[in-house]
Model the fold of this input.
Amino acid sequence: MNMHKYEKIWLFFGTGTLLVFLIIVGISAFYMGNQPPSCAVTLDPEKVDEWPPFDEPGLKQIGDNEYQLTVVASAFHFDVGTDDGVVQIPKGATVHVSATTKDVIHGFELVGTNVNMMLEPGYISTYTNTFKNSGTYTLLCNEYCGTGHHLMTATIEVIE
Ligand SMILES: [Cu+2]
Done:
C-alpha cells in the first residue's frame, strides 16, 4: 500500500499522542491513585435522619487537624449542624465531607475549591479537601431542584 508522506506523519502523530494520554491516565489512576469521586455508598433516603452520621450533621474533629463534615441537603436547605448555616474550619485543616439528600437531586459546590459533587437520593457523596487559604466560601446547590433552588446556600469560614 502506498501512503503519502504527510499521511504517515499524521498517523504517527495521532497514535503517539493517544499513547501519551493513555500512559498519563494509567500512571495517574494506578500509580498515584487518582480516582473520580464515587457514589458507591448507599443509604435509605427515607431514613436519613436516623442514619449515622447523618443523624447528627455538622463538623466533628476526628484527628490532629482533621475533621469530618456531615451535610444533609433537602429542598431548599443545607443542614450543616448550625442554626445560621455557617461552619468554621481552622486554616490548613483536612476536611472529609460526607453528604446526602433527603428528597431530590441537589448539587454540592464549594465555590473557589475543587469540592463539587452531585447529591443523589440513596447515595452518600464524599470528598476530602484541605483548606490552605483562609476566607469565606459559599456552599451552593448547582443542580436545579425547585422553586427555592437559588436560596439553597451555606457558608464555610476558614479561619486562622
Ligand atoms: Cu438546587
